[in-house]
Amino acid sequence: MNLKMTAIAMSAAGMVSLSGCASIVGDKDQQITINSTPSQADLVITDETNQEIFQGETPTTVTLKKADGSYFGGKDYSVTLSKDGYESRAISISSSPNGWYIGGNILFGGLIGWLIVDPLTGAMYTLSPDEINGNLGESVAQHEGSQELNLVLLKDVPDDLRNDMQLLGKI
């Protein structure tokens, strides 16, 4: 009985030493929640190679890969929010090594976890921010056949629309 327990304990210790801490407690993917003010804004997510990853509308939650599949290859993303009548907004999501990768491998995983297992799985990364609340600001004046009249401060009018402005009268 003692020999069997010793064999089980050694097997468990061997498995732990051949894995990385971030790979044990982390995932290869991460959920990111994206909201906007105003809501129902169009949303496009592209990665660091400018490849479109997701297209949709806010509010939504997307699942993004934390690594690009290469050795020590974290992924970065750009989220673009847009809505008619509002200025577009771009927000970056970046990957960085997480605490389990840094601290956990010092205490438990060792060099195998630090240099081989965690970098290959991508579990060593955390995407930040994990929640986006994009504010597209106040509605700006519309053009190109719009039948609406919006009053805005001059400082809130995008530069490309200022040339189309007309003085209606003096106060």
Largest sheet: 5 strands, antiparallel
Count of DSSP H/I helices: 4
Q: How far from one another are the termini?
A: 97 Å
Low-confidence stretches: 10-25
Organism: Chromohalobacter sarecensis
Keywords: Signal
Signal peptide: 1-22
Protein name: PEGA domain-containing protein
Describe this structure in a few short sentences.
This protein has four helices and eight strands; from the N terminus they run ααββββββαββα. The chain is an alpha+beta fold.
Structure description:
The protein is an alpha+beta fold and about 170 residues long. The protein is built from 4 helices and 8 strands; from the N terminus they run H-H-E-E-E-E-E-E-H-E-E-H. It has helices at about 1-15, 20-25, 100-120, 160, and strands at about 30-35, 40-45, 50-55, 60-65, 75-80, 90-95, 125-130, 130-135. The strands form 2 sheets. It has a 5-stranded antiparallel β-sheet. The longest helix has 23 residues, at about 100-120. It is elongated, with a radius of gyration of 25 Å. The model is unreliable at about 10-25 (pLDDT under 50).
